[in-house]
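Entry 12.
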Amino acid sequence: FWHHLSLGPVPWDEGEEFRHEASLNEDLGQVAAETPDTRSPQSGRFGALLSNWGLGAYAGLLERNGYDPESMRALSDLEVGEMLSVVGCKPEHALTFHKALDSWR
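Predicted 3D structure (tokens):
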């Protein structure tokens, strides 16, 4: 492939690619270092518990609305319906939530 030198270095030059990759990794490391980890240890366990059922995307919503594994175990059927409404549960996930809650009780 022809590349005119007035355009600058060729983008596929091995040295440039590795330099760019290293620069990107440094930037990502800096962002990670500047971002505070606001998750509690409970948050990680709760997310993992939900992820086992394919429901990990709901962990943050549930926590922000005051739900945790212990409170979810104690929910009545009426309260489960309310919880699913509060987090905007997709219809295809509702049955999975019910099965997960039954297994946790």
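Annotation: Helices lie at 14-34, 41-51, 59-64, 69-73, 77-86, 91-104. Residues 53 and 96 are 7 Å apart (CA to CA).
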